[in-house]
């Protein structure tokens, strides 16, 4: 018996083993082990502490401020919120931070922010047309919170600043506890010491004097953009709610005065910036929740922004930073002649030096700016053996470390900041 013929056109079953897949550039083939990237240890951030009643009050205050004013950033809104709360514990602080509310033009929301602050800070004292004598006679061991609107009318020009030098001195001295002014009082002219320590908010167009800005949490306001909306501020309707919130914040804070005075928080900044921001960070630590983290983030970012802004201003740290760029671009020579240094400074189209004065920055103005940092020109030797006036690089090393330590993108070599 013949075996049955296979079905016509039948084909054998494919083998069970699969063919190797076609390789795709940049991808492993099937069946091949996936390459594993080295796993880097990622440090898990510590969880936020449990919030307290103070955390909820700060959240409520933040929402109230945002209802009436658009701040330039979430960090600025956090900073203003913490500053307001800190006014209710002024006897605990070693330093009384200023709040500098500045903007480039009118209608940036500066006065409206001051309206909200007036109804939420501790014992507000408006100082419009108030004499310095009246101010320091109003400061006691339980100091008020000074509020100065239109500060540009006080310090806006050299003539105004000179006329109001006593007010500037009061604001500078009042940043630190135990700084007094002595005045004679009464018909017998008896010398009397007056306290100056008090927190203060100043609003105005343009920057305030450097000595005040250096002691301030700086809020750089700007005009509302199209589509940004705020609620109109109406005294009769809005002040009662703000006063109720103010009183609840004070009731929460006052029992914590001794604890606040003893705290020494870890700060993300140093020196005067740390002194200024410390009360805000302590308030955040007392409130707990997300506030300690947000306070330190606001501190670090806003202080860094002010350092960068300072470097962008003519003179001061700006001239040091630009000279450092010149030395780096010239491959770190031991010295540069004054003419070569001026030429390189004026070549930067984004710097102010080409338009400084009538013909750009000159040797006399450069020497005057650098003299503030104890840097003076001297004789430098050229490759051909001759000598000309110029500047030695090693004279800049210490001022660079102190006034502009941030390494700029052009500073590609560590030698830019090394010591000789």
User: For the terminal residues, how far apart are their CA atoms?
Assistant: 106 Å
The amount of helix comes to: 40-55%
Shape: globular
Main sheet: strand order: 2-3-6-1-7
Tell me, rounded to a whole number, the average pLDDT: 83
Number of helical segments? Answer: 16
Alpha-carbon Rg, integer: 31 Å
Beta-strand content estimate: 5-15%
Q: Give me the strand/helix succession.
A: HHEHEHEHHHEEEHEHHHHHEHHEEH
Low-confidence spans: pLDDT under 50, at least 5 residues? 6-11, 16-31, 407-420
CATH architecture assignment name of the largest domain:
3-Layer(aba) Sandwich
What is the number of strand segments? 10
Structural class label: alpha/beta
CATH topology assignment of the largest domain: Rossmann fold
Give the number of domains: 2
Can you walk through the features of this model?
The protein is of the alpha/beta class. Helix content is 40%, strand content 12%. It has 16 helices and 10 strands. Strands 2-3-6-1-7 form a 5-stranded parallel beta sheet. Strands 8-10-9 form a 3-stranded antiparallel beta sheet. Strands 4-5 form a two-stranded antiparallel ribbon. Strand 4 and strand 5 form a beta hairpin. Pfam families: DUF3631. InterPro entries: DUF3631 (IPR022081). This is DUF3631 domain-containing protein. It comes from Streptomyces filipinensis.
